[in-house]
Fold:
Amino acid sequence: MIDSMLWALPAVALVFAVTTAALRRSPASGFRRLLVVNGLLILAGLVLLSLLVLGVVEPANAAATSLSSSSSWAALLGAGIAVAGSAIGAGWAVAYTGAAAIAAVSEKPEMFGRSLVFVGLAEGIAIYGLVVAIILIGKA
Structure:
C-alpha cells in the first residue's frame, strides 16, 4: 500500500503543477480545459466499470490471492463506489452549507459556532462512506 502511494506521489505533484500553471495563465479557459479533462476521465472510468460489470474484462491479479474470487473484487468495487459517492455528496453539501454559513457569519458574527456545526454535519457524509467501505473491505 505504501509503495503504491509512493509511486503515485510524483504523478500527483505533476498534475498539481500543471493544473496550477494552467489556471494561473488563463483562469477561464484553463478551468474549461480542466472540466473537459475531468469529464473524459469520468467517462473512461464509467466505461471501465461497465466492462468489469459485464464481464468483458477481468480484474488484474497482481498477487493471485487478493482478487481470486469474484465476490472479492465486487466488494472492493463497492467500497470504491461508496467512498466516491459519499465524497461527492459531502462536497456538494459542504459547498451549499459553507456558502450559507459564510453569509450568516458575515451578517451576525456570533453565528459562527452554529454554522460550523452544520458544515461539520455535512462533512460527516464522507465519513459514513468510509465506514461502509471499511466494512466491505473487511468482508472481502
